[in-house]
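[recover] target loaded
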């Protein structure tokens, strides 16, 4: 026999399983296993939140992918800036071009992408803005 948890812990269980990448059916089956230790209302409420938490997980994964894209584009921009600077420095001309704009923009994009990427997935869910008057 399992030790009964609080009703809100069922919803937390659904959220935790969704953010571990579990699919709808496996979460649903896990809730069915626990139906003897919880009231029907709590099970129903937890089952109705499965899709919501899976959607939030997918949105968080999109934000994570966006951060990786930002890091990649920043790296490309940084390498372009370094390449232009190096090429013009070692050319036979009496001058060279310091592409500091591309270098700094690349470093900034890498830094911004890393800040987003290192956040936990639960923090990457876009917040709904509520406008009140």
């Amino acid at each position: 026999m399992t030790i009964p948890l609080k009703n809100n812990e069922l919803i937390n269980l659904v959220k935790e399983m969704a953010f571990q990448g579990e699919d709808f059916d496996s979460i649903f089956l896990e809730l069915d296993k626990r139906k003897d230790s919880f009231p029907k209302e709590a099970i129903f409420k937890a089952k109705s939140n499965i899709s919501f938490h899976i959607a939030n997980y997918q949105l968080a994964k999109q934000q994570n992918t966006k951060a990786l894209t930002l890091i990649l584009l920043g790296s490309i921009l940084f390498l372009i800036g370094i390449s232009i600077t190096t090429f013009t420095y070692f050319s036979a001309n009496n001058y060279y071009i310091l592409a500091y704009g591309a270098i700094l923009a690349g470093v900034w994009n890498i830094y911004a992408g890393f800040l987003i990427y290192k956040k936990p997935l639960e923090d990457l869910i876009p917040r709904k803005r509520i406008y009140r008057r």
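[recover] notes: The chain has two domains: 7-48, 59-124.
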